Amino acid sequence: MIAKTRHAIARQQQRGIPNSVLDVVLKFGTPSNKPGGAIGYFITRAEANLIAGRLKKLISVIERANGIEVIQSDNDTTLTMYHKH
Fold first, then answer.
1. Where are the domains of the chain?
2. Closest by CA position to 30, among listed 51, 11, 16
């Protein structure tokens, strides 16, 4: 959970910004220095498009991984893999 001031909680509610959006901006946003030593985070349209493209590729990989089982030894060496039905 992200620590927030009462002011931040009020503004988040007033502006209808869900926690999931806050999490994404803080994780993927570009930081910039603000007065008083604060740091702002912002996602540009280009950055949002890049992130969305990467996520679409990841979704495709996850869909292809569905039903695949990988067997590893206790030292993390891959022994085999197969389609599990």
1. 6-83
2. 51
Q: What H or E segment, with its residue span, contains residue 6?
A: helix 6-15
pLDDT tens sequence across 56-73: 999 999 999 999 999 999
* 34-60 core/surface letters (b: 16 or more CB in 10 A; e: else): eeeeeeeeebeeeeeeeeeeeeeeeee
Phi, psi (degrees; rounded to nearest 5) at 46:
-65, -40
Instruction: Give the predicted TM-score (pTM) of the model.
Output: 0.70
